[in-house]
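Q: Hi! New to this. If I give you a protein sequence and the SMILES for zinc ion, can you show me the bound structure?
A: Yes, paste them in.
Q: Okay, here:
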Amino acid sequence: MNLTLDNDLSIEVVRTNRKKTASIKIVDGSVQVIVPQNLSDARVEELIQKRTPWIRRKLREQSQAVLPKPKEYVSGESFTYLGRNYRLKVLRGNDQEVKLKGGYLEVGVSKKPKEGDIRNALVEWYEEHALDRLIEKTNRYAKIMGVTPNSIVARDYKSRWGSCSSKGDVSYNWRIIIAPHHIVDYVVVHELCHLKHPNHSPAYWKSVKSEIPDYEVCRQWLKEHALELVI
Ligand SMILES: [Zn+2]
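A: Thanks. Here is the predicted structure of the protein with zinc ion bound:
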């Protein structure tokens, strides 16, 4: 059975004896609703209507989750820092030094750079600046919120933006510094609120919201742009 809702969502309904509850699968932009064999058509339709906003959101996320083009580390290429784009300028013959200068991200490398030299220099620069900015932001929000983190570090996490231990050690993924300021602020507040609530309870989200009223927009932005925050 194929259903078309609102003229643009195409959904395949699969009936099976092997399931007692309904589930929805979205793979490569196609939607499958798997339901128990004996569920009535009316119930199936009702279920799909109810889940349509969720299906739309997932489809949107998947379509935007396109892997960015791998970086080539050549002059003219665009790099983002705190949400602003800078052109890369590779200066050969200069000593390894990276700096932001008039809209450019300048990287000095030796006359014959080895493969990875430019990227390594950039990563080092981002890590260093990430830590500085994250310490600054964490201290600022900690003061406002009346909490005291024990330590602040920036790490190379693969799939998280931050964490907060029960001892109050806050760590961040240095790559968050590629994102715009208000997204970085959200991640900082997210971790600091864990000093008050070591969970994601309604009370926890309430305290996030009191600092970042549009935190839901920030969370969604992070989901949609996670793959782009790479060097
Ligand atoms: Zn959390």
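A: The first helix runs from residue 41 to 64. Let me know if you'd like me to explain how to read the tokens.
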